[in-house]
Amino acid sequence: MNYNIELIKKYFPNLNQLQVEQFAKLGELYTFWNAQINVISRKDMENFYLHHVLHSLGIAKFAQNFKPGTKILDVGTGGGFPGIPLAILFPEVTFHLVDSIGKKIKVVNEVAQSLGLKNVIAEKTRAEHVKDKYDFIVSRAVTRLSNFIPLIRNKLENKDINALSNGILYLKGGDLESEVKEAKVKAELYPLEAYFREDFFETKYVLYIPM
């Protein structure tokens, strides 16, 4: 078993055998598909598990758990992040991954099918065109919060089914105070370095915005 899987198991020691196999397969799947359709910078593929898989799972470290039947929308998923790693970790949660670029959604669908993920729906569409409602909306730094909030404002369920109130779980880095102020929302910032020891996470956060 290689270092990459050990990195995931280090922080998520309770994975079952299927989940270990699915996480292990991610690397070869993205290496193959990234050669056909560029969804991750070629240089960044060397740090694929650290920069993309583990980073995505920062949401799981903060939220800890989602009840079966929870519905999560991943906006601007790109090649499937954070949705695909979260879908492996939470097989009883439904993930709807959307992106406006069809080539990226093709990769997401191929990866999900190869992994046997029955809890993933990937669709080429814009967030503002999504009609359904969700318990949580996740994303990885697709745009400034002031641009993001209007796109998803009416897409959250009113009733909470999890210990964590419904809202946005947004992965972003850098100095976020001015961005949160600009967006005029109440956001709680949780540093990923509280969960992961690698230097990469020093300036990375999960922003939780209950709505």
UniProtKB/TrEMBL annotation:
Query: Known EC number(s)?
Result: 2.1.1.-
The record, for Pfam families, names:
GidB (PF02527)
Where in or outside the cell?
Cytoplasm
Gene Ontology MF, one: rRNA (guanine-N7-)-methyltransferase activity
Kindly indicate whether the keyword Phosphoprotein belongs to this entry. Answer: no
- GO CC annotation: cytosol
TM region(s), chain numbering: none
Q: Which residues bind S-adenosyl-L-methionine?
A: G76, F81, A127, E128, R140
Q: What is its EC class?
A: transferase
Q: Which family does it belong to?
A: Belongs to the methyltransferase superfamily. RNA methyltransferase RsmG family.
- Role this protein plays: Specifically methylates the N7 position of a guanine in 16S rRNA.
The name this protein carries in UniProt is Ribosomal RNA small subunit methyltransferase G
Which species is this UniProt entry from? Candidatus Sphingobacterium stercoripullorum
Which lineage ranks, top first, belong to the organism behind this chain? Bacteria, Pseudomonadati, Bacteroidota, Sphingobacteriia, Sphingobacteriales
- The record's gene field reads rsmG
